[in-house]
């Protein structure tokens, strides 16, 4: 790999350049409203890839992170400690595992963390990076997270009890599964503040965006985001794609002199953080075919097929609720990469999209996108059928999100000679209703059963005429209360 001497970050909207990893980690959106990306991407050579083949998943995460975090910012020994500690609490050795099933179906299980969703992997690493810097500089931060279900639980499990930060989580009440809800509301630690909002997960993002646009509030309380807006999460997720490539593409059997084999990776897609990571890995020289699959909330497939980047009027509730999303905000990173890093263009596009909730992609960009990605959408019926078929053929239970990806495998044949890998983003234990709908049964793990007996604590955000403003006000009040309590060395927690 060519060694980059410096690693700077810039905004996808062209207004910010030359930021370091630490500043980027502590920011949500860039000050110009864009998202952070590395100014340059190193190329991974075939030799580097071959030398990475023997690495465990945690070792691979360390190698990938060390490309994007200069050693002056986190020395390698510290980085190793942080990642190894973060990934130590997983229920399988090496944190991930690969299931090789019938009909050429490879499933990379990324759900062996505390909340049984793939988000645990990148979240826990990111929270450990954060805590490292806070501790080093004796500072505190307030993390604000909007969640479509899995992010909140993951953030809470990664951050609870940490002395350097408070976490404010807002989730769409009744739109997530009971297990997801309890993973959040049963956390009674004083640095965790949970809000249950009467709206969709996109509604939840509205007041949060408004909070982050208040630069004075952001600075004073060191507000930060842990949504996949945060570069650090996307960075750790690069490892999912590289790991899949190293173990499923057939790299090992390929002749040294032959061109690198191609791997097709199918990704259940919601906020598009994972697929953005895939696009970055592809630009780093790994030959991937990427497939972004969604449920009935099909804005990504429509954009890929016809350039129609427009939200439907409502979010459709499906059996795969973690991807019930109409605003796939990480597509901004993909647009930026594919437009040749044209910050001016991305700024115009995204501002129009944010104002009108629709945008037609420029012809050239649409062409790039349709070459870079394949995309499709499936309904609840297809999700159920896929779960049934996979069970019948393999006695292997899929979560409904993973089923969205596996549907593509069962119905669209890959290019001859190309291997395929589906990313499994959650454990079926979190999505019991979908399992029941499919007429299947599952044995619930002890930690899921235990949730029912626990005490809960959260604050409701009710729907009002002026909900956008009201919710923003309520959250701001909480943030200010936390800030002043901490100033006096006290803790503060929200209650009704
Ligand atoms: C978050 C999530 C996704 C979507 O990931 P994105 O990176 O937002 O596209 C898919 N499946 C599950 C189970 C999730 O929790």
TrEMBL record:
Residues 9-86 form the Threonine synthase N-terminal domain. InterPro entries: Thr_synth_N (IPR029144), Thr_synth_N_sf (IPR037158), Thr_synthase-like (IPR004450), Threonine_Synthase (IPR051166), TrpB-like_PALP (IPR001926), TrpB-like_PALP_sf (IPR036052). GO terms for molecular function: lyase activity; pyridoxal phosphate binding. Signal peptide: none annotated. Its cofactor is pyridoxal 5'-phosphate. Keywords: Lyase, Pyridoxal phosphate. SUPFAM superfamilies: Tryptophan synthase beta subunit-like PLP-dependent enzymes (SSF53686). The modification N6-(pyridoxal phosphate)lysine is found at residue 119. Residues 108-335 form the Tryptophan synthase beta chain-like PALP domain. The keyword Acyltransferase does not apply. Belongs to the threonine synthase family. NCBIfam families: thrC. This is Threonine synthase-like 2. It comes from Esox lucius. The lineage of its organism: Eukaryota, Metazoa, Chordata, Craniata, Vertebrata.
């Amino acid at each position: 790999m060519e060694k980059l001497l410096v690693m700077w970050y810039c905004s996808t909207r062209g207004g910010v350049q030359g930021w370091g990893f630490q500043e980027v980690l502590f920011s949500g959106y860039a000050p110009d409203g864009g998202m952070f990306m590395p100014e340059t991407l190193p190329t991974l050579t075939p030799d580097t890839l071959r030398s990475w083949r023997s690495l465990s998943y945690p070792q691979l995460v360390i190698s990938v992170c060390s490309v994007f975090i200069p050693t002056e910012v986190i020395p390698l020994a510290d980085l190793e400690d942080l990642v190894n500690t973060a990934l130590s609490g997983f229920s399988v050795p090496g944190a991930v595992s690969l299931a090789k099933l019938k009909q050429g179906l490879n499933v990379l299980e990324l759900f062996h963390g505390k909340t049984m969703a793939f988000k645990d992997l990148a979240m826990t690493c990111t929270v450990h990076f954060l805590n490292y810097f806070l501790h080093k500089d004796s500072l505190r931060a307030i993390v604000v997270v909007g969640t479509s279900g899995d992010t909140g639980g993951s953030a809470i499990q990664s951050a609870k009890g940490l002395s350097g930060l408070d976490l404010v989580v807002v989730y769409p009440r009744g739109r997530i599964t009971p297990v997801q809800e309890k993973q959040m509301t049963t956390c009674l630690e004083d640095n965790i503040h949970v809000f249950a909002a009467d709206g969709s997960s996109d509604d939840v993002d509205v007041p949060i965006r408004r909070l982050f646009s208040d630069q004075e509030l952001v600075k004073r309380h060191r507000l930060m985001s842990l949504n996949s807006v945060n570069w650090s999460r996307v960075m750790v997720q690069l490892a999912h794609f590289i790991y899949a490539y190293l173990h499923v593409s057939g790299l090992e059997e390929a002749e040294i002199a032959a061109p690198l084999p191609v791997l097709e990776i199918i990704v259940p897609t919601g906020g598009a953080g994972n697929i953005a990571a895939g696009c970055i890995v592809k630009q780093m020289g790994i030959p991937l075919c990427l497939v972004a699959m969604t449920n009935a909330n099909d804005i990504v497939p429509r954009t890929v097929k016809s350039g129609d980047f427009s939200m439907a009027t409502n979010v459709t509730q499906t059996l795969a609720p973690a991807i019930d999303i109409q605003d796939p905000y990480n597509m901004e990173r993909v647009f930026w990469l594919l437009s040749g890093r044209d910050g001016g263009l991305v700024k115009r596009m995204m501002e129009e999209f944010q104002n009108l909730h629709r945008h037609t992609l420029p012809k050239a960009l649409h062409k790039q996108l349709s070459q870079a990605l394949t995309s499709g959408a499936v309904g609840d019926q297809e999700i159920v059928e896929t779960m049934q078929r996979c069970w019948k053929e393999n006695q292997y239970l899929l979560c409904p999100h993973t089923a969205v990806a596996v549907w593509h495998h069962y119905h669209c044949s890959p290019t001859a000679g190309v291997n395929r890998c589906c990313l499994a983003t959650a454990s079926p234990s979190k999505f019991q209703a979908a399992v029941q709908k499919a007429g299947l049964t599952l044995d619930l793990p002890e930690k899921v059963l235990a949730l029912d007996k626990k005490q809960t604590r959260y604050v409701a955000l009710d729907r009002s005429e002026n909900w956008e403003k009201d919710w923003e006000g309520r959250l701001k009040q909480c943030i200010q209360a936390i800030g002043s309590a901490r100033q006096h060395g006290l803790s503060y927690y929200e209650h009704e």
